[in-house]
Amino acid sequence: MSGTENINARFCYNRPMIKGKKILVTGSGGFLGGYVVEKLKQRDPKKILTPSFKDHDLRVYEECLRATEDVDIVIHLAANVGGIGYQQKYPADIYYDNVTMGTQMMEAARVNGVKKFLALGSVCAYPKFTPIPFREENLWDGYPEETNAAYGVAKRMMLVQAQAYRAQYNFNAIYLLPVNFYGPRDHFELDTSHVIPALIRRFSEAKKLDSPEVVVWGSGKPTREFLYIEDAAEGIVLATEKYNKPDPINLGSSSEISIANLAELIRKLVGYKGRIVFDKSKPGGQPRRKADTSRAKKEFGFESSTTFEEGLRKTIAWYEEELERKIKKP
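Structure (tokenized):
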């Protein structure tokens, strides 16, 4: 039996991991966090703790200790993150905030006897030129793409810590590598949003203003993989229930689309008739992204169930309904 198997054998993995448990979800007020809380409620936990930044600043260790007192499970989703423009503008803040929150939350959870810790990484942690599809064993084969490096490296550090804590302290920490999320309730602010909400907003506004063109950053050639937000939340909860090993696991949809084709699809679904112009002077990010999701299926039975076009239609419909609601609001 290997050392890893010895460590895993000491955990009681057959008991239910959510029902009757007290669960802390950091970042619960964020885009992903709200969906994860909804999925957890379906599993009959004893209590779900959803502190805000005002309740606990996780960059302060004493606040992390207070947050993790008398908790069975921690799902750490809190992050300082945004699109390419935001990451270029605030790389130091992004690195410091994320590495500090992750390090201190895991240590506080260990000190307070938390039974399980789920650390959410990011596809940005992968090397810039990773073979397609991204496999978990390739994570350390190079440095992340430059515009995402501060965030990606900070997220990698949680995996190092999780594996070190498992080896030395027998601490049950797991680590997931999700691709980009999208869906209703996303953030549509142009200065911080990711590519899908940013494009939906730009095409929607251009349609209303009858603008002749919409400018998209980069060449349009880079590819991305996207995971519908409800599917992502289900994958996180399934991993919390069923996965208890040191190896990182990708969460994705096993699809890949270029930014050019994505822009064209959103243009069509929004109903915008103008042209798309690619600004090649702007960064486009990592050349390709597509994850191998076979490990998630094998280990805890996760597969995405929402087709990309279906997810986009739901996201666009939500955004348009929100605009109408704001217009009608007195």
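The radius of gyration is 20 Å. The chain is about 45% helix and 15% strand.
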